[in-house]
Structure to design on (515 residues):
C-alpha cells in the first residue's frame, strides 16, 4: 500500500462515505494518526498492536484529540481490512481490539513533552555510523533457499487447501480456523491438528492468506511462488512467526550474525546474548542457555537463515540477510550499502573490505576482480599490500584469493621471492619450495597481529617454530608495525613456553644496545 499520508486519508474518506451505513472519519485527526505512525513505518497499511501504543503516546504528548477520535481510528482499521490493505504483521481482530482500547492521556500526563521526539518509542535505535553496511544479494540468489524452506512450503500448501476462503472461529480472540477445519487441514497435510495453527499463522504472515474479521481469504502472495522477489519477501515477513517457538531468541541470534557478518560458534553466542534471566544449570527443569541457543540455531539452519560451517561455525546466509534487512525497512531505516565496485580502486576495495562485514567481502571482492579480469586485478591488489605495514590489507587480499590459486599461478610466480609477499605466496600455493624463514615470519606476524587485535588464540605452526630463537629474533628485527604487540603475546605464553622464553630474550636483549 506504500502511498503518501494525504493519499491514504483521501482513499479512506472515500471508502467511509460509500460504506453502508456511512462511517465517521475526521480527516485532520486521521492525518495526525498516520503522520505519527509514519515516523517509523514506511507503509501506512503496516500496523501492529505496538504501533497503536506508540501512536497513542504520541497523540498524548501532542495535546487534545477530538471526542470521537476512536471512531475515526476504527474507521481506518476497518478500511484497511475491507480493502485487504492491512499488512501481514498483525491480525485484524487484534489490531481493532487495540484501537478500541486506546486511551489518549491528558497532555500534562504524557510521558514526555512533544518537543522531545527522542523518546524511547520514536527515537533512533541506532546512530547512522552504527548501522551495519550490508551487501544484499539479488532476490534470485536467495529465492531458491526460500522455496526450499519446509515451513514456508507447508504454509503454502495450507493456503492452497483453504482455496477461496473459509469462516473463522467466531469465539476465538485471535483469528483461527474452526475446529472442523483444523482437523480437515491436518488430514490433508499429514500433520497433527495442533501443528496447523503454527502453519496458519505462518501463511498469514507470509501473505499467502489474509483474514477479515470473520473469514480467511487468499492473500496477495499466494500466487507469487515463482516470483523471486515476492517469495523472498514472503519468507522475510513470515520469519518472526517461523522462529516464534524460541521467543525472541531466534531473532536475537540472527541479529548478531547479521550485524557482525562474521562466523560464530554457539558458545560465543551464549556469551554475547547474556545476561540470561534466571540462568539455569543442566539437570534443572527446562534447558540451559547453551541448549536454548543450539535449539534456536537448528531452527534457523532448517529455515535457511544461517549455514553451518566446518568446525561448528555459523554464518548468516543471503536469505537471512534479506530477512533482517526487511525488519529494518519496516522501521523506515535504510541500511547503508557499499559503493559500486566499478568505481573502486584496489586500495578503496581493501578499505571497504576491512570496514565491512566479513560475509560481504568475498562477494564484493570477487565481483571487483571479475570486472577487471582476475589476473590483472590480483596484481593490483598485491601491489597495494606489498609494503610491510599493509598487514591488514594482506590478510584480506589472500582471503580473497582463496580458491583462485590455480588460476593465479602465473601471478604468484612473479612474487615468489618478494620479501613481504613471498611467504604468503608459498602458503597460498601449498608449496614452500625455496621460501625463506624471514618470508614465513611475515605471514606469522600478519596473522598473529590480527588475532592479537581480536583477542583470539595464536596457533603454533610447529614447522616454523622449530627454532624459536630464530623466529622471534626475525620478528623483533623485521620492522613490522605489529611486532611489539605480537612478541608481547608470545612472551606471555601464547604459543608455548619455549617460544615465550625466546620472545622475552629477543625483546629485552637489545635494550640499551648501541648506547
Amino acid at each position: 500500500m506504500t502511498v503518501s499520508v494525504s493519499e491514504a486519508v483521501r482513499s479512506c474518506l472515500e471508502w467511509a462515505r460509500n460504506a453502508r451505513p456511512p462511517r465517521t472519519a475526521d480527516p485532520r485527526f486521521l492525518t495526525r494518526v498516520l503522520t505519527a505512525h509514519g515516523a517509523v513505518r514506511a507503509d501506512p497499511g503496516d500496523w501492529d498492536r505496538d504501533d497503536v501504543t506508540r501512536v497513542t503516546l504520541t497523540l498524548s504528548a501532542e495535546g487534545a484529540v477530538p471526542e470521537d477520535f476512536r471512531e475515526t481510528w476504527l474507521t481506518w482499521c476497518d478500511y484497511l481490512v475491507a480493502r485487504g490493505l492491512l499488512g501481514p504483521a498483525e491480525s485484524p481482530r487484534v489490531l481493532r481490539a487495540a484501537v478500541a482500547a486506546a486511551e489518549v492521556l491528558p497532555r500534562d500526563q504524557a510521558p514526555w513533552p512533544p518537543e522531545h521526539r527522542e523518546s524511547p518509542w520514536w527515537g533512533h535505535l541506532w546512530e547512522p555510523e552504527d548501522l551495519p553496511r550490508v551487501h544484499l544479494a539479488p532476490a534470485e540468489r536467495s529465492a531458491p533457499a526460500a522455496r526450499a524452506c519446509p515451513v514456508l512450503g507447508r504454509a503454502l500448501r495450507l493456503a492452497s487447501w483453504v482455496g477461496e476462503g473459509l469462516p473463522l472461529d467466531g469465539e476465538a480472540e485471535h483469528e483461527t480456523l474452526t475446529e472442523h477445519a483444523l482437523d480437515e487441514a491436518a488430514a490433508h497435510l499429514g500433520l497433527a491438528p495442533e501443528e496447523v495453527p503454527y502453519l496458519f499463522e505462518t501463511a498469514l504472515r507470509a501473505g499467502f492468506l489474509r483474514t477479515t474479521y470473520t473469514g480467511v481469504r487468499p492473500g496477495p502472495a499466494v500466487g507469487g511462488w515463482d516470483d523471486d522477489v515476492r517469495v523472498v519477501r514472503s519468507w522475510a515477513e513470515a520469519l518472526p512467526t517461523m522462529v516464534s517457538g524460541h521467543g525472541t531468541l531466534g531473532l536475537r541470534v540472527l541479529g548478531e550474525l547479521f550485524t557482525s557478518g562474521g562466523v560464530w560458534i554457539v558458545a560465543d553466542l551464549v556469551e554475547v546474548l547474556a545476561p540470561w534471566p534466571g540462568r539455569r544449570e543442566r539437570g534443572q527443569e527446562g534447558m540451559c542457555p547453551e541448549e536454548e541457543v543450539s535449539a534456536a540455531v537448528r531452527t534457523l539452519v532448517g529455515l535457511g537463515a544461517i549455514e553451518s560451517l566446518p568446525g561448528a561455525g555459523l554464518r548468516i546466509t543471503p536469505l537471512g540477510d534479506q530477512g533482517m534487512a526487511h525488519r529494518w525497512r519496516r522501521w523506515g531505516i535504510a541500511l547503508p550499502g557499499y559503493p559500486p565496485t566499478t568505481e573502486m580502486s584496489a586500495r578503496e576495495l581493501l578499505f571497504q573490505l576491512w570496514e565491512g562485514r566479513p560475509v560481504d567481502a568475498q562477494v564484493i571482492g570477487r565481483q571487483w576482480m571479475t570486472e577487471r579480469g582476475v589476473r590483472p586485478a590480483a596484481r593490483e591488489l598485491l601491489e597495494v599490500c606489498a609494503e610491510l605495514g599493509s598487514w591488514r590489507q594482506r590478510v584480506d587480499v589472500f582471503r580473497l584469493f582463496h580458491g583462485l590459486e590455480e588460476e593465479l599461478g602465473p601471478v604468484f610466480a612473479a612474487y615468489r621471492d618478494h620479501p613481504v609477499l613471498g611467504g604468503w605466496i608459498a602458503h597460498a600455493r601449498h608449496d614452500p619450495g625455496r621460501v625463506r624463514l624471514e618470508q614465513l615470519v611475515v605471514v606469522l606476524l600478519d596473522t598473529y597481529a590480527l588475532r592479537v587485535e581480536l583477542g583470539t588464540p595464536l596457533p603454533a605452526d610447529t614447522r616454523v617454530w622449530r627454532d624459536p630463537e630464530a623466529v622471534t629474533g626475525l620478528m623483533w628485527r623485521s620492522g613490522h608495525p605489529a611486532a611489539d604487540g605480537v612478541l608481547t603475546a608470545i612472551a606471555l605464553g601464547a604459543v608455548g613456553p619455549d617460544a615465550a622464553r625466546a620472545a622475552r630474550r629477543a625483546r629485552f636483549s637489545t635494550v640499551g644496545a648501541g648506547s
Notes: The CA atoms of residues 207 and 220 lie 6 Å apart. Strands lie at 166-167, 209-211, 215-218, 306-309, 313-316. The chain has a mean pLDDT of 88.
